Amino acid sequence: VLPTFLGVPAGMFALTAAFMGNSLWENYTGASNAIRLEAQGLTAYIEIAESVAEFKTLQLPQIARDYTRSVVEDEWGGKAEKQATPKTEKLFKDMQLATFRAAERKRNTAETAALLSAYRTIQEGRRGRLGYVMFLVDPVRWFGVMLLALLVQLSIGAVHFAKPKALILAMPLGTATILTVLCTIALTLSTPYIGWYAVSHEIYLPLLQ
Question: Do 109 and 96 touch, CB atoms closer than 8 A?
C-alpha cells in the first residue's frame, strides 16, 4: 500500500509542476513573439522611411531609432518597473504623430500604406511585449504544489521507514528533486525580461546602427 501511496502525491506533484511550467513556457514564447513582431515592424518602418524623401525629411528613421534605443536602454528589464517608462512612451507617441503627419503629406500612396502597416505592427508588438512583462501565479497553485511536495517527502519517509539506509539515500534525492523543480519555477516567475532565463533584446541592436 505504501509504495502505491507514494506514487499518488508524486504523480500529482509532477503534473501540477508540469502545468505551471507549461504556463511559464507559454509566457516566454508570447514575449519572444511580441519582441520579434515589434522588431520586424521597426525594421520595415526604418527601411520605408529611409527610401522615401518626404519621410526622411520628417526624420522618421531617427525618430524610430530613438524609440528603439529607449526600449533597450530605459524600458528593458527591471528599469521599466513592470510598466512602460515615461521617456519611451513619449518617444512612441512622437513616432505616432510623425507617422500620421507623414501620411497626411503623402496620401493614398503605396509607401504611405506600407509605413502605416509597419507602424501598426510596431504598436501591436509593443502592446504584446508590455503585456507579458509580468507573470502571476495564483497563490492557491503555489500552496497546492508546496503541499504536494510535502506529501511526497512524507511518503518517501513512510515507504523507507523500516530501511534506515534506504531512507538516508531516498530523502536527500527526493528533496533535491523537489527543490530543483520549485526553484526553477520560482526563478522564472517574475518577468521574461529579467533573470537567468531572460528573453534577449539583441534583436533590436542592429536597428541602432
Answer: no
Q: What is the mean pLDDT of residues 192-203?
A: 75
Predicted TM-score of the model (pTM) = 0.72
Short-list 1, 135, 121, CA closest to 64? 121
- Whether pLDDT at 157 is above 70: no
For residues 151 and 71, is the Cβ–Cβ distance under 8 A? no
Taking Cα atoms as reference points, which of 181, 156, 172, 154 lies closest to residue 13? Answer: 181
- Percent of the chain at pLDDT exceeding 70: 57
Burial 137-176 (b: 16+ CB within 10 A, else e): eeeeeeeebeebbebbbebbeebbeeeeeebeebeeebee
Interatomic CA distance for residues 62 and 85, integer angstroms: 20
